Amino acid sequence: MHIKIVKADGTSEYFKIEKLRRSLRRAGAIPEEVNAIVAEISSEIYDGIHTQEIYRRAFSLLRENEVAIAARY
Asked: What is the pTM of this model?
């Protein structure tokens, strides 16, 4: 997957799925949740998406099932 994202500081880089996985795991999501969220977000991202939009979507998906984990995220 070679999708460029725009970071908060305005720079861009290629989307790294492992960064998303790591942040979800650090928040306390179980592997099944991580996989489901990563799959959902991977299908929705597009070239030029901002990291804030990715964060909001991940937060929303976490909040649907795990409010406490979403709060840590």
From this structure: 0.82
